[in-house]
Amino acid sequence: MNAKPLWPPRSHALKLLQKIQKHESPVELDESPVELVYMSHERWPCPPLPIHPQRKLDTIRVSVLDSSFNPPTYAHLALANSRPPRYTMRSGLTGLALESTVELDYDARLLLLSVRNADKALKPGDATYEQRLEMMYLLSKDISASVSQLPEDTSESAHANIAIAIIDEPTFVGKATVLRQFLRARISGLYRPSSALDRMMTPPTSGDISTPGPRLTFLIGFDTLVRLLSPRYYASEAAMMDALRFFFSPVGDDCYVVCARRNMEEVEQTVQAEVEARTLSAAKEFVESERVALIGIGDDEQTSSSQVRTKVVLQDETWRRLVTSSVANYIIQNSLYTSAST
Asked: Which of 28, 92, 251, 260 has its CA 20 to 30 A from that of 280?
Protein backbone atom coordinates (compact mmCIF):
# COMPACT_ATOMS: atom_id res chain seq x y z
CA MET A 1 0.00 0.00 0.00
CA ASN A 2 1.24 3.51 -0.75
CA ALA A 3 1.79 5.82 2.22
CA LYS A 4 -0.51 8.32 0.58
CA PRO A 5 -3.89 6.76 -0.24
CA LEU A 6 -5.55 7.39 -3.59
CA TRP A 7 -7.98 10.13 -2.71
CA PRO A 8 -8.06 13.95 -3.02
CA PRO A 9 -4.42 15.10 -2.85
CA ARG A 10 -2.97 16.14 0.50
CA SER A 11 -2.62 19.66 -0.89
CA HIS A 12 -6.41 19.73 -1.37
CA ALA A 13 -7.04 18.63 2.22
CA LEU A 14 -4.48 21.14 3.49
CA LYS A 15 -6.16 23.94 1.54
CA LEU A 16 -9.54 23.08 3.09
CA LEU A 17 -7.99 22.91 6.57
CA GLN A 18 -6.38 26.32 6.14
CA LYS A 19 -9.65 27.72 4.87
CA ILE A 20 -11.71 26.47 7.79
CA GLN A 21 -9.12 27.42 10.41
CA LYS A 22 -9.36 31.12 9.53
CA HIS A 23 -10.33 33.11 12.58
CA GLU A 24 -12.53 35.55 10.68
CA SER A 25 -16.28 35.15 10.99
CA PRO A 26 -17.61 32.61 8.44
CA VAL A 27 -20.73 34.79 8.14
CA GLU A 28 -18.67 37.82 7.09
CA LEU A 29 -16.69 35.70 4.63
CA ASP A 30 -19.83 34.01 3.36
CA GLU A 31 -18.15 30.68 4.12
CA SER A 32 -19.37 27.60 5.94
CA PRO A 33 -17.62 26.28 9.08
CA VAL A 34 -18.02 22.84 7.46
CA GLU A 35 -15.99 21.56 4.51
CA LEU A 36 -16.51 18.24 2.73
CA VAL A 37 -13.12 16.66 2.03
CA TYR A 38 -14.35 13.43 0.46
CA MET A 39 -17.67 12.01 -0.77
CA SER A 40 -18.34 8.50 -2.03
CA HIS A 41 -20.54 10.04 -4.73
CA GLU A 42 -21.41 13.56 -5.81
CA ARG A 43 -24.99 13.49 -4.48
CA TRP A 44 -24.06 12.67 -0.88
CA PRO A 45 -25.96 12.65 1.53
CA CYS A 46 -28.86 11.84 -0.81
CA PRO A 47 -29.09 8.07 -1.29
CA PRO A 48 -27.42 6.96 -4.51
CA LEU A 49 -30.07 4.32 -5.14
CA PRO A 50 -33.86 4.07 -4.63
CA ILE A 51 -34.80 3.90 -0.97
CA HIS A 52 -36.95 1.24 0.64
CA PRO A 53 -40.34 1.23 -1.18
CA GLN A 54 -42.29 1.45 2.10
CA ARG A 55 -40.57 4.65 3.21
CA LYS A 56 -41.27 8.12 1.89
CA LEU A 57 -38.12 10.21 1.68
CA ASP A 58 -39.08 13.08 3.98
CA THR A 59 -35.96 12.79 6.13
CA ILE A 60 -32.38 11.84 5.33
CA ARG A 61 -30.95 10.06 8.36
CA VAL A 62 -27.24 10.78 8.73
CA SER A 63 -25.03 9.01 11.27
CA VAL A 64 -22.18 11.26 12.40
CA LEU A 65 -19.03 9.65 13.77
CA ASP A 66 -17.28 12.63 15.31
CA SER A 67 -13.86 11.84 16.74
CA SER A 68 -10.23 12.88 16.82
CA PHE A 69 -9.30 9.77 14.74
CA ASN A 70 -5.82 9.75 16.27
CA PRO A 71 -5.80 7.01 14.95
CA PRO A 72 -9.07 5.35 13.85
CA THR A 73 -9.54 2.00 15.63
CA TYR A 74 -11.81 -1.02 15.47
CA ALA A 75 -14.05 0.81 17.94
CA HIS A 76 -14.58 3.52 15.33
CA LEU A 77 -15.33 0.87 12.73
CA ALA A 78 -17.83 -0.90 15.01
CA LEU A 79 -19.63 2.35 15.80
CA ALA A 80 -19.72 3.40 12.15
CA ASN A 81 -21.23 0.05 11.21
CA SER A 82 -23.87 0.11 13.97
CA ARG A 83 -27.54 0.22 12.95
CA PRO A 84 -30.22 2.52 14.40
CA PRO A 85 -31.26 0.86 17.71
CA ARG A 86 -34.60 0.30 19.37
CA TYR A 87 -34.63 -0.02 23.12
CA THR A 88 -36.83 -0.22 26.21
CA MET A 89 -36.32 0.83 29.81
CA ARG A 90 -36.39 -1.49 32.80
CA SER A 91 -37.18 -0.06 36.20
CA GLY A 92 -34.28 1.42 38.13
CA LEU A 93 -31.17 3.17 36.87
CA THR A 94 -28.91 0.14 37.24
CA GLY A 95 -31.50 -1.86 35.31
CA LEU A 96 -31.02 0.09 32.08
CA ALA A 97 -31.33 -2.41 29.27
CA LEU A 98 -31.46 -2.03 25.55
CA GLU A 99 -33.20 -4.36 23.16
CA SER A 100 -31.73 -3.74 19.76
CA THR A 101 -33.64 -4.71 16.64
CA VAL A 102 -32.41 -4.32 13.09
CA GLU A 103 -34.35 -1.75 11.09
CA LEU A 104 -33.56 0.24 7.98
CA ASP A 105 -30.01 1.50 8.00
CA TYR A 106 -28.95 5.15 8.06
CA ASP A 107 -29.34 6.84 4.70
CA ALA A 108 -25.84 8.33 4.87
CA ARG A 109 -22.74 8.27 7.03
CA LEU A 110 -20.38 11.10 7.92
CA LEU A 111 -16.90 10.87 9.43
CA LEU A 112 -16.31 14.24 11.08
CA LEU A 113 -13.06 15.80 12.29
CA SER A 114 -13.19 18.94 14.40
CA VAL A 115 -10.22 21.28 14.10
CA ARG A 116 -11.26 22.96 17.35
CA ASN A 117 -11.66 20.48 20.22
CA ALA A 118 -12.92 21.61 23.63
CA ASP A 119 -10.38 19.35 25.40
CA LYS A 120 -7.71 18.21 22.99
CA ALA A 121 -5.04 20.21 21.20
CA LEU A 122 -2.42 18.88 18.80
CA LYS A 123 0.66 17.67 20.67
CA PRO A 124 4.13 16.84 19.38
CA GLY A 125 4.04 13.28 18.08
CA ASP A 126 0.34 13.36 17.22
CA ALA A 127 -0.86 12.65 13.71
CA THR A 128 -1.41 15.88 11.83
CA TYR A 129 -4.90 16.78 10.68
CA GLU A 130 -3.91 15.88 7.12
CA GLN A 131 -2.73 12.44 8.28
CA ARG A 132 -5.91 11.90 10.28
CA LEU A 133 -8.00 12.72 7.23
CA GLU A 134 -6.04 10.20 5.19
CA MET A 135 -6.60 7.55 7.88
CA MET A 136 -10.29 8.47 7.93
CA TYR A 137 -10.36 7.82 4.21
CA LEU A 138 -8.85 4.38 4.81
CA LEU A 139 -11.45 3.78 7.53
CA SER A 140 -14.23 4.77 5.12
CA LYS A 141 -13.06 2.01 2.80
CA ASP A 142 -13.27 -0.49 5.68
CA ILE A 143 -16.80 0.51 6.60
CA SER A 144 -19.46 -1.83 5.35
CA ALA A 145 -22.15 0.56 4.21
CA SER A 146 -24.48 -2.19 3.01
CA VAL A 147 -28.17 -1.38 3.22
CA SER A 148 -30.61 -4.04 4.37
CA GLN A 149 -32.96 -3.68 1.40
CA LEU A 150 -30.23 -4.06 -1.24
CA PRO A 151 -29.14 -7.47 -2.60
CA GLU A 152 -25.83 -8.87 -1.40
CA ASP A 153 -24.30 -8.73 -4.89
CA THR A 154 -24.95 -4.99 -5.30
CA SER A 155 -21.75 -3.14 -6.21
CA GLU A 156 -19.68 -1.55 -3.45
CA SER A 157 -20.28 1.94 -4.82
CA ALA A 158 -24.01 1.49 -4.36
CA HIS A 159 -23.57 0.76 -0.65
CA ALA A 160 -21.00 3.40 0.23
CA ASN A 161 -23.00 6.55 0.95
CA ILE A 162 -20.30 8.08 3.10
CA ALA A 163 -18.43 11.37 3.37
CA ILE A 164 -15.56 12.88 5.32
CA ALA A 165 -15.77 16.46 6.60
CA ILE A 166 -13.95 18.93 8.80
CA ILE A 167 -15.70 21.38 11.09
CA ASP A 168 -14.65 24.41 13.12
CA GLU A 169 -16.90 23.94 16.15
CA PRO A 170 -15.84 22.45 19.51
CA THR A 171 -19.15 21.31 21.08
CA PHE A 172 -21.73 18.75 20.03
CA VAL A 173 -24.57 21.20 20.55
CA GLY A 174 -22.82 23.69 18.29
CA LYS A 175 -21.94 21.03 15.74
CA ALA A 176 -25.57 19.93 15.49
CA THR A 177 -26.76 23.42 14.58
CA VAL A 178 -23.93 24.00 12.09
CA LEU A 179 -24.28 20.58 10.45
CA ARG A 180 -28.06 20.83 10.11
CA GLN A 181 -27.75 24.21 8.40
CA PHE A 182 -24.99 22.93 6.12
CA LEU A 183 -26.80 19.72 5.17
CA ARG A 184 -30.17 21.42 4.70
CA ALA A 185 -28.58 23.84 2.22
CA ARG A 186 -26.68 21.06 0.47
CA ILE A 187 -29.73 18.80 0.14
CA SER A 188 -31.81 21.68 -1.19
CA GLY A 189 -29.17 22.33 -3.83
CA LEU A 190 -28.89 18.67 -4.81
CA TYR A 191 -32.50 17.59 -4.67
CA ARG A 192 -34.16 17.70 -8.07
CA PRO A 193 -37.65 16.18 -7.94
CA SER A 194 -37.83 16.23 -11.73
CA SER A 195 -34.81 13.97 -12.12
CA ALA A 196 -35.18 10.29 -12.89
CA LEU A 197 -33.34 9.35 -9.69
CA ASP A 198 -35.67 11.31 -7.43
CA ARG A 199 -38.71 9.86 -9.18
CA MET A 200 -37.29 6.45 -8.32
CA MET A 201 -36.71 7.53 -4.70
CA THR A 202 -40.28 8.77 -4.25
CA PRO A 203 -43.31 6.45 -4.21
CA PRO A 204 -45.47 7.02 -7.31
CA THR A 205 -48.57 7.53 -5.14
CA SER A 206 -47.09 10.49 -3.28
CA GLY A 207 -48.37 14.00 -3.87
CA ASP A 208 -46.22 17.07 -3.96
CA ILE A 209 -42.54 16.36 -3.48
CA SER A 210 -40.81 18.35 -0.77
CA THR A 211 -37.11 18.55 -0.06
CA PRO A 212 -36.17 16.12 2.74
CA GLY A 213 -34.42 17.47 5.79
CA PRO A 214 -31.43 15.96 7.62
CA ARG A 215 -31.77 14.09 10.92
CA LEU A 216 -28.50 13.57 12.76
CA THR A 217 -27.48 10.65 14.97
CA PHE A 218 -24.15 11.17 16.69
CA LEU A 219 -22.17 7.95 17.27
CA ILE A 220 -19.94 8.36 20.30
CA GLY A 221 -17.89 6.57 22.93
CA PHE A 222 -18.76 6.74 26.61
CA ASP A 223 -16.06 9.32 27.38
CA THR A 224 -17.73 11.67 24.92
CA LEU A 225 -21.12 11.07 26.56
CA VAL A 226 -19.51 12.09 29.87
CA ARG A 227 -18.43 15.38 28.30
CA LEU A 228 -21.80 15.94 26.64
CA LEU A 229 -23.50 15.66 30.06
CA SER A 230 -20.89 17.58 32.05
CA PRO A 231 -21.96 21.06 33.29
CA ARG A 232 -18.39 22.36 33.02
CA TYR A 233 -18.82 22.65 29.26
CA TYR A 234 -21.80 24.98 29.71
CA ALA A 235 -22.46 28.23 31.54
CA SER A 236 -24.32 26.35 34.28
CA GLU A 237 -26.15 23.08 34.90
CA ALA A 238 -29.44 24.79 34.03
CA ALA A 239 -27.89 26.09 30.80
CA MET A 240 -26.69 22.57 30.03
CA MET A 241 -30.17 21.09 30.41
CA ASP A 242 -31.69 23.85 28.26
CA ALA A 243 -29.09 23.28 25.55
CA LEU A 244 -29.50 19.50 25.63
CA ARG A 245 -33.29 19.67 25.55
CA PHE A 246 -33.07 21.82 22.41
CA PHE A 247 -30.40 19.50 20.97
CA PHE A 248 -32.69 16.46 21.39
CA SER A 249 -36.08 18.11 20.84
CA PRO A 250 -38.05 17.26 17.66
CA VAL A 251 -38.77 20.99 17.34
CA GLY A 252 -35.14 21.87 18.03
CA ASP A 253 -32.09 20.22 16.49
CA ASP A 254 -33.91 16.85 16.54
CA CYS A 255 -30.71 14.89 17.24
CA TYR A 256 -30.08 11.40 18.57
CA VAL A 257 -27.04 9.96 20.31
CA VAL A 258 -25.89 6.34 20.11
CA CYS A 259 -23.20 5.58 22.67
CA ALA A 260 -20.99 2.50 22.94
CA ARG A 261 -21.34 0.83 26.33
CA ARG A 262 -18.26 0.25 28.42
CA ASN A 263 -17.24 -3.20 29.60
CA MET A 264 -18.97 -3.19 32.99
CA GLU A 265 -16.40 -5.51 34.59
CA GLU A 266 -13.67 -3.02 33.76
CA VAL A 267 -15.79 -0.10 34.97
CA GLU A 268 -16.41 -1.72 38.35
CA GLN A 269 -12.66 -2.17 38.82
CA THR A 270 -11.83 1.50 38.29
CA VAL A 271 -12.51 4.83 39.90
CA GLN A 272 -14.61 5.61 36.84
CA ALA A 273 -17.58 3.71 38.30
CA GLU A 274 -18.82 6.87 40.02
CA VAL A 275 -18.49 8.85 36.79
CA GLU A 276 -20.39 6.10 34.98
CA ALA A 277 -23.27 6.19 37.44
CA ARG A 278 -23.43 9.99 37.46
CA THR A 279 -23.46 10.14 33.65
CA LEU A 280 -26.24 7.56 33.37
CA SER A 281 -28.24 9.50 35.94
CA ALA A 282 -27.85 12.72 33.95
CA ALA A 283 -28.78 10.87 30.76
CA LYS A 284 -31.91 9.25 32.21
CA GLU A 285 -34.33 11.90 30.86
CA PHE A 286 -32.97 11.51 27.35
CA VAL A 287 -32.77 7.72 27.50
CA GLU A 288 -36.43 7.59 28.55
CA SER A 289 -37.37 9.88 25.67
CA GLU A 290 -35.48 7.52 23.31
CA ARG A 291 -33.00 10.16 22.26
CA VAL A 292 -29.95 8.47 23.84
CA ALA A 293 -29.26 4.78 23.31
CA LEU A 294 -26.44 2.67 24.72
CA ILE A 295 -25.27 -0.18 22.51
CA GLY A 296 -22.74 -2.97 22.83
CA ILE A 297 -20.01 -3.17 20.22
CA GLY A 298 -18.20 -6.24 21.56
CA ASP A 299 -15.32 -6.51 23.99
CA ASP A 300 -12.76 -6.87 21.18
CA GLU A 301 -13.81 -3.49 19.74
CA GLN A 302 -13.71 -1.63 23.06
CA THR A 303 -10.39 0.08 22.54
CA SER A 304 -9.22 3.67 22.40
CA SER A 305 -6.88 5.64 20.19
CA SER A 306 -4.73 6.44 23.23
CA GLN A 307 -4.17 2.71 23.78
CA VAL A 308 -2.86 2.40 20.25
CA ARG A 309 -0.53 5.36 20.64
CA THR A 310 0.82 4.08 23.98
CA LYS A 311 1.45 0.59 22.61
CA VAL A 312 3.29 2.01 19.58
CA VAL A 313 5.56 4.06 21.84
CA LEU A 314 6.26 0.97 23.99
CA GLN A 315 6.89 -1.08 20.85
CA ASP A 316 4.13 -3.44 21.92
CA GLU A 317 3.17 -5.08 18.65
CA THR A 318 -0.32 -5.95 19.93
CA TRP A 319 -1.37 -2.45 18.84
CA ARG A 320 -1.86 -3.88 15.35
CA ARG A 321 -4.86 -5.86 16.63
CA LEU A 322 -6.63 -2.62 17.59
CA VAL A 323 -6.76 -1.08 14.10
CA THR A 324 -7.58 -2.29 10.61
CA SER A 325 -4.71 -3.53 8.45
CA SER A 326 -4.87 -0.48 6.17
CA VAL A 327 -4.58 1.91 9.13
CA ALA A 328 -1.81 -0.21 10.66
CA ASN A 329 0.18 -0.04 7.41
CA TYR A 330 -0.33 3.72 7.26
CA ILE A 331 0.94 4.16 10.85
CA ILE A 332 4.05 2.10 10.08
CA GLN A 333 4.81 3.75 6.74
CA ASN A 334 4.44 7.24 8.21
CA SER A 335 6.26 6.41 11.48
CA LEU A 336 3.38 7.74 13.56
CA TYR A 337 3.28 7.78 17.37
CA THR A 338 6.90 6.71 17.82
CA SER A 339 7.65 9.62 20.15
CA ALA A 340 6.96 9.29 23.89
CA SER A 341 5.38 12.75 23.75
CA THR A 342 2.22 11.11 22.38
From this structure: 251
